[in-house]
Amino acid sequence: MARDAALHETQLTIMEGDCRITWTLYESELNAGVIRHRSDCARDLAGQAPMLRALLRRAMEEPVVMQKFRALSWGRLVPDGARDYALGVRVATAAKRARDWSARTGRPAKGGREAWVARALEEGKLYEEIRAAFAAEGWRLRVASAEKALVMNAGGLPFFAQLRALGVKAKDRVPFDVQLWFHAERIQRQ
Predict the structure, then answer these.
(1) Which of 180, 37, 183, 34 is closest to 114 using CA atoms?
(2) 24 found inside a domain
(3) DSSP string for residues in 119-183
(4) Is 17 inside any structural domain?
(5) Would you give the distance in Å from CA 119 to the centre of its chain?
(6) Structurally, how many domains does the chain consist of?
(7) What is the pLDDT of residues 114-162, one digit of tens each?
(8) I need a surface site. Which of 7, 24, 36, 134 has the fewest CB within 10 A?
(9) How far apart are CA 131 and CA 136, in angstroms?
(10) What number of other Cβ atoms are within 10 A of residue 33's Cβ?
(11) In which domain, by residue range, is 62 found?
(12) How many CB atoms neighbour CB 170 within 10 A?
């Protein structure tokens, strides 16, 4: 744990082997209750889930988080220099399989790319391991928004081998990255 009093934030990092996940807990009034997620981890989401649970338990020891947690900023699905492609692979594959996404133009049949990706993530249950990890700790997550969707030919993506194995062609234009926000709320126990 590293606290920066001047910035009113705390960083929590968990490492297992070559997998590192860092959460920044914001304490300033404007951002109180927001956690920013950053990952450099080649594990799939099931392999990351226990680490997410451990981070969430530790974050809840901080009073501002315990009292005000409301949003998880996942950041980019495919961060620069990192090896965490799990959600990017799922979004790209969902687009290739969707009837309302044109792999030729890289656009949804109607609406914007960001709305399409947010809906695909939520309705397609593409982040189920993350949702389950938070639910086990008493929190419900849902996609709040997706910003700045990136689309390109699948053949140029660093995880194209995974996509090809799932039926995506090199020339298919697919979404692979957004800035993702989750809304968090406490599960009411009966």
Answers:
(1) 180
(2) yes
(3) HHHHHTTTTHHHHHHHHHTTEEEEEEEEEEEEEEEGGGSTTHHHHHHTT--TT-EEEEEEEEEEE
(4) yes
(5) 14
(6) 1
(7) 999 999 999 999 999 999 999 999 999 999 999 999 999 999 999 999 9
(8) 7
(9) 9
(10) 17
(11) 2-84+113-149+178-186
(12) 12
Of residues 100, 68, 72, the one with CA closest to residue 87: 72
Within-domain flag for 101: no
Q: What is the pLDDT of residues 81-102, one digit of tens each?
A: 677 899 999 999 999 999 999 9
Q: Comparing C-alpha atoms, which of 31, 105, 113, 42 is closest to residue 68?
A: 31
Residue recorded with tokens 């304490």: 27
Check whether 72 has a pLDDT greater than 80.
Answer: yes
Q: What is the dihedral of CA 141, 175, 165, 49, to 10 degrees?
A: -20
Nearest CA-CA partner of 183 in 141, 125, 126: 141
- Tell the residue number behind the tokens 């297992």, with chain if given: 16
Q: Give the count of beta carbons closer than 10 Å to the beta carbon of residue 44.
A: 14
End-to-end CA distance of the chain: 34
Residue 68 φ then ψ, to 5°: -125, 5
Across the range 11-29, mean pLDDT stands at: 92
Encoded tokens for 170: 């090199």
20, 39 contact by CB (below 8 A): yes
Residue 121 lies in a domain: yes
Nearest to 156 by CA among 180, 172, 138, 135: 172
Nearest to 130 by CA among 56, 34, 70, 76: 56
